[in-house]
Each structure stands twice: as structure tokens, then as C-alpha cells.
Amino acid sequence: MPIGNTQPSVRPASAGRAGGAAVTPAAHRSGARPRRSHGGLRAERYAPYILVAPAVLIIVLLRLYPLLLGVNFSFTGDGAQNGEAVGFGNYSELFGDPLFRTALGNVGLLVLLLPVAVAIPGLLATFIYLRVPGHRFYRSVYFFPAVLSPVIVGAIFNLLLAFDGPLNAVLGSVGVGPVDWLGDPDIAMFMVVGVHIWATFGMALVVFLAGFATLDAALLDAARVDGASLRQVVWHVVIPSLARTIQFVFVTTMIGMLTSMFGLLFVMTSGGPEGSTYLPEYYIWIQQGQMNRPALASAASTILFVIMLVVGLMQIKLLERAGKED
């Protein structure tokens, strides 16, 4: 029986698996990708918006909407005029109140002391990064005050700064008379701000250390080779390299000084002596919590928000201009 000329069957190159479309070697070599469907492209386009939508919704509901309600409420009356439109009556009353004018004056004092509040953690972070003598001590204790409650901090410094307290005892031992640190209207606000800076500089220092992690070490090495002093290294290398970090610390520190000093004020001075340590947030609490005047408190809150917005934008502009000049 003649044997036929049998050959093994060869599957054509165009045949794919399970009858699917074939992928030619040329397609593999060219790296061609299958085209995505129109629905896939649309999903990819809207994915970022879907991901940020929950955060935006939270901000709108818990921040922007209450802010707008507060602004609207500030144009209504209190007491017998509750809910009635009074125009700018609340704002006129605020600027006619000596206590509120004192609070605004203290805001100006905070703005003047802000560079000190930023320079202290900035210098400490520089010392730690450059490993100057004592940097291990600063690294071990810098964050300790930040974990204390403002009430505890205020109570501690009430004891230290009391008229018959340890600080005046030390001054008396060197022949200096006692100072009424918290009872003198001319210095009480400086004491409260100083305590606040001591209690909160640890957070700013952490931000500065994070900024130093992005600093190019080659710049510092070049400065050392050129014989630059520590002051020159800080002024010409560190500050320009950390411009964005410094902007962030300036803005967040100012916001903290305007909105996070209530605990210290309440424990240390309660707004005294003679109202000299009033700040807008303390004034707002007095009007809302004790005087039961929510509309007037809303007007003061609106003014505080505008102050923070204007001061923050001015700081950013000034720091950006200084960076460009350098």
C-alpha cells in the first residue's frame, strides 16, 4: 500500500489562540498596543476628579458652607433684632469697641514678632542639620513642648512668671526688682506670645528638617571649600534653597498665632490686664460664649478671616520677591 506524502500540519501565523486575533512578530517588535475603547479613555479622564471629589465635598460642607453662613449671619442683628438685616451695623459696632481695637493692635504685634517665631525653629533646624555642637541635645528635646496641652503650658508659666515666682526670685538674687510679668499691660502680651512660640516651635522645626532633606549637600560642600562662615552658609545657601519651606512655615505659623492662642490667653491672663492681651479669637469667644451675641461674633470672625487671608497673601508675595532678588 503506497504511503502518501504526509507532512505535519503547520498552523498559519495568522491564527491566534482559541480562534482569536493573531499577533504578528512585527507587532511584537514595534511594541504596538491595542487601542483602548472610548469608554476606557473617558474613565481615565475622569478618574482624578472622582478621587478628589470626597475631599472637595468635605471642604465645601465643613469649611466653605459654614464660612458663607457666618458671613451672611454677620449682617443680621442680635437680641431683639435677631435675624433682622442690619447691614454693616455689627462691623461699625466692632470698630467702635476699644477691646476689639486692642485685639487688632495685638494682631499687628503678632505680625511684627512673626519673623522671630520662624527664625527660632529655622536656626535650630540648621544647627541640627549642620551638626554643630549641641545638635544632639536639640534633636532630643525640640518636640517636647509641642506635645503639651496649652492649659498645662499656661499653668506652668503662671507659676514661673508669678510676682513671687521663681523668675523674680532669680532676678532678686542679682539685685533686680520683681517684675509683674503678667500684670503689666505693657509686657503681658509679649510674655504670652513668647510662651506660645516656645510651646509650638517644635512643629515648625519638623517642617524645616523635612525641607533640609531636599537640600543639595553639594552646595554646602562647595560653600565650605570656599571658606564660607556659618552665617554666610545660612544666608546664601540655606535660605534660598528652602524658600518654599520658609513660605509654608511663615503662613502656618501666622495662622497658628491668630487662631491657636485661646488656651494660653484663657489660662494665663483671661484677656487682662485691662484687656491688653485680647486677640480676635478671644474676643469672639467672649461675645459668643458670655455675651450671647452670635451675630457680632460672626462679624468678628469674618474680619479675622480677612486678616489671615490678606496677611498670608502678603507674606507669600514678599517672600517670592525676596527669593527673586537673591
Automatic annotation (TrEMBL):
Region (Disordered): 1-39
Source species of the chain: Micromonospora inaquosa
Membrane topology (UniProt): Multi-pass membrane protein
Primary location: membrane
Identification of the protein by name: Sugar ABC transporter permease
Highest taxon listed in the record's lineage: Bacteria
Biased composition (Basic residues): 30-39
Location of this chain's protein in the cell: Cell membrane
CDD domains: TM_PBP2
GO BP, one annotated term: transmembrane transport
GO cellular component terms given for this protein: plasma membrane
Keyword Membrane: yes
Family: Belongs to the binding-protein-dependent transport system permease family.
Biased composition (Low complexity): 13-22
Transmembrane residue ranges: 46-65, 107-130, 142-163, 187-215, 248-268, 295-314
Limits of the ABC transmembrane type-1 domain: 99-315
InterPro entries, A to Z: MetI-like, MetI-like_sf, UgpAE/MalFG_permease
Keyword hit for Membrane: yes
Pfam families: BPD_transp_1
